[in-house]
Amino acid sequence: MYKWFIRPLLFSFDPEKVHYFTTGLLKLILNTPLLSTLYKKHYQYESKKLHVKVCDILFKNPVGLAAGFDKNAEFYQEMSALGFGFIEIGTVTPKPQPGNPKKRLFRLKKDKALINRMGFNNNGVEAAVEALKHKGDIIIGGNIGKNKMTPNNKAVEDYKICFKALFDVVDYFVVNVSSPNTPDLRALQDKKPLLNILNCLQKINLSKAKPKPILLKIAPDLNDNQLFDILDIVEESQISGIIATNTTISRDNLKSKHQSEIGGLSGQPLKQRSTEVIQFLKANAKSDFPIIGVGGIHSASDAVEKFENGASLVQLYTGFVYEGPKLVKDIKKAYVNHHA
C-alpha cells in the first residue's frame, strides 16, 4: 500500500515540506485510539528473540532510526510506536541554527537515494533536553556536532556543551565529525583533532557515576589509511564503538537528474561501501567493539547483510523513506529467522 499509493502521493511534494507533513500526520494517527490500534497491529512485531545487548544497553530490537530524521526530538514517541528499537536524535548543536539555504533536500528516485545539504539545522541543545525530559523507556541516542560559526580549533567546546547538557536524557552519544554539509567539519576526522575531542568527552564521561557509551560516526569516503587511524583512535580514546557510515560525497553510477547537487548522498548507492567499511573495521580491529551499520538498507536482506558482516545494530533513514514502515517489521522478522 505504501509503495503503490502513499509514496507516489508524498513524492509529488517538496521532500522537506512533506517530511514535516507526514510526521505531523503520524502524530495525529497515533493519538487517535482506533487508528492507532489498527496502525500498530499492521506494523508492529515484537519477540524476545529480538532483544540484544550492546554497550551494556538492552535494546528491544536491533533496528534504529538514524540521526537526521528527528533532529529536535519531536517525533521519537511516534517512531518508537512504529517499531524502532532506538531513536537517534540530532545532529544537535549548542545554539539553534537554521542550516543551509533551501532547497536543500533532493530525491534521486531512479537511484532510490537522497541528497541533503541540511547543515545541522536544529533548535539547539536546550530545546532537545526539554523535549526528552519525559522520554520514558525509549532508548535515545544523542548525535552531537558543532555550530557552523564555531571554528575547528574551538569545536571541542561545542561538543562538550552538548555532551554535558544531554547527559541525563540520552542513553548513548554519537560524535558527528563526518557530515559533508558543515564547512571543514570533516577535517575533524583527522587523528589529532578527533582524539582531542574524544578524550575531552571521555574525561567528562568517566567522571560520572555511570558513564554513557560514546560512538563515533564516520564517513564512507575514508581510505584504508584513514580507517586504520580511526581504529587507533578507538583504541586510544576507549570509546564504545562506531557508526558506519554517514552520507557520501561520491556520485558514482547515478542515474537521476539531481545527481550533481552538492551535499551528502544516502540510500541504495551507499549500500556496498557502507558494508565494506564494516568489513574492514571488523577485520582489522585490535579488539572487538560494536558497530552500528547504516547506509543503503532498503530491504530485510540488506539489513541481514550488515549483521552478517559484523554490525551489532542497524539504522534506517532513506530506506525508510522509500520503503515505508513495513521495512522495520520485515527486518525484525528476518533477524529472528536468521538467528533461529
Keywords:
340 residues; alpha/beta; TIM Barrel; three-stranded antiparallel sheet; membrane; cell membrane; Dihydroorotate_DH_2; dihydroorotate dehydrogenase (quinone) activity
Describe the protein's architecture and organization.
The radius of gyration is 19 Å and the shape is globular. The mean pLDDT is 96. The chain has 12 helices and 13 strands. Helix 8 crosses helix 9. With 340 residues, it is an alpha/beta fold. The chain has one domain: Alpha-Beta Barrel (TIM Barrel), CATH 3.20.20. The protein has an 8-stranded parallel beta barrel with strand order 3-4-7-8-9-10-12-13, surrounded by 4 helices. Strands 5-6-11 form a 3-stranded antiparallel sheet.
Could you write a compact summary of the structure shown?
The chain is an alpha/beta fold. The protein is 39% helix and 16% strand.
- Which fold name is given in CATH as the topology? TIM Barrel
CATH superfamily: Aldolase class I
What form results from the Cα inertia axes? globular
Strand tally is 13
Would you identify the CATH architecture?
Alpha-Beta Barrel
The proportion of strand residues reads 15-25%
Which structural class do you get from the secondary structure elements?
alpha/beta
Summarize the SSE layout with pairings:
Elements: H1 2-10, H2 15-30, H3 33-43, E1 52-54, E2 57-59, E3 63-65, H4 76-81, E4 86-92, E5 105-108, E6 113-116, H5 125-131, E7 140-144, H6 155-166, E8 172-176, H7 191-205, E9 214-218, H8 224-237, E10 241-244, E11 264-267, H9 271-284, E12 291-294, H10 300-308, E13 313-316, H11 318-323, H12 326-338
Parallel strand pairs: 3-4, 3-13, 4-7, 7-8, 8-9, 9-10, 10-12, 12-13
Antiparallel strand pairs: 1-2, 5-6, 6-11
Helix pairs in contact: 5-6, 6-7, 7-8, 8-9, 10-12
